[in-house]
Structure formats: structure tokens, C-alpha cells
Amino acid sequence: MGTQSGSRVLPAPGSGGAKLVKFLTSSVRLGLTAVWQPRALYREFYKKPEPLRGCRSLLAGGEVIASIRAVAGVMFSPYEITENGYESQFQVNYLSHFVLTSLLLPRVKETSLRVDKHVACRIVNVSSVANYGGKIDFDELEECKVYVSTKAYADSKLCQILHTRYLDTILRSEKHIKVNVLAVHPGTIVSELWDNLPRFILVIANAVKGILQTTEDGANTIIYTALSPKLEGIGGVYIANCEIVPPNQQVENVHVQQQLWERSLELGKL
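That's the Short-chain dehydrogenase TIC 32, chloroplastic sequence above. Prediction below.
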């Protein structure tokens, strides 16, 4: 959805409210169900006079540098094939974000060469604790022989962390490039993403809603991952509750990382 540009001032997560982050916001419509849609947003993005403004502000000042945050997604949705012929959760939660990140990456790298050498740009993939239930099977990566919505969701979130690890490794091998890639679980939040859950689970969720995290809590976790100086220079990691934690063991498999990368380039027509 498009929104009006504006500005907000927020306490920096983990700072006890002592520091403030001021940033501009601007948005354009983004579709994720076809590989041409991230390309359309990419073209729209560069029509703007200052395409990178508002992406990230340093805690120490107002200088703006590049940050990509892959947030949008669906959860436990009914079986659906996109116009590219891919299972929808795989495409919406992972592949389209992969395409958009790949398109924007040259500008992010260029920006990293112009900022303070002690400050890195950040790419943040919003994953989920569901990644632990995933297992990548390349025989049915973008298609499902037997569809189980919870499994498809978990696999898509695991893909995000595998992408995080591999892209961060690539960027660290490039001389003078200062870009860190991180994945984050925003927390267990009752939101519209729960709409496709079975009714009895929704009843339970609403009953315990008071002890679950709010959308603001989830946003704070994402902001922490994108902005916290405690994470400066750290990449390729998975964060939950503002702490670095081990992800699904399959993330450690370099062969799986590379195979997913190559398959994603092919499926994303990059």
C-alpha cells in the first residue's frame, strides 16, 4: 500500500530510550506474487529524487545509509500457485524478497563505500522461529507434491536464513564492501498473519493474547536488528529476543546455502 511521507522519532531499542532515531518514511506498493513485481518496485524506487533517504539513520547522527528490510509475508495460507508457477508461500515469503534484494544490492554496496569505515550497511530478513520446523528439499522447493501449509511456511522462513548466511559470506569476501546481512524472529505476535490458522487455534490465541507480544514489540526487535550498535560488524546470524541464537542446523550446510542461491537466481530470472 502507498502511504504519505512523514517522519517519526523513536527510542532506539536497547538504549533505554536515551537515544532517539529520527527518520523519514515513504512507501510504494509492492506485490510479491510474481517476479516482475519486485522489478516494478525497483523502477519506481529509482524515480524518487532521493531513493535511499529514509532507509536507515545512524544512532549517532542523521546521516542516512542503505538498509533493506524484507518484512512482508503470508503464513499458513491455503495452497496456491503464483503466475510464475511457484507455491505462494515460497514466492511471497522468500523468492520475491530475494529478487528485490538482489536488484538493490549494487546501490547498497556503492553506499557502503561512501560511509564511515566503521559503519556497515545492513540487510535484514524477517524470518520466524518456524524455521526450526523446515527442511529444504530441492526436489520440491518451489512446488509441493503434498502440500502442508505449516511445512511450506517453515521452509520459506528457513530459506530466508540460508540466504542471510550465504549472502553475508559473499559480501565479506568483497574488498572494502561493508554490508552485513542478518535474520530476525520478531516474536510471537497475534496479527493478520494468523488469519489462516484453524479456528480453534485462533480461539486459544485470543485467550492468551495478553501474554503475547504486540506488533510494536515485533517492530522493536526488527529496529534493533537494523540499527543497534551492538550488532555493528556482525552478520550471517539469526536473532530472536534481541539475542543471537542458533538457527535450524541445515543453515550450517554450505552446500545447501549455495544450491539455494543458484536455484533462486534461476527461479528469480536474475
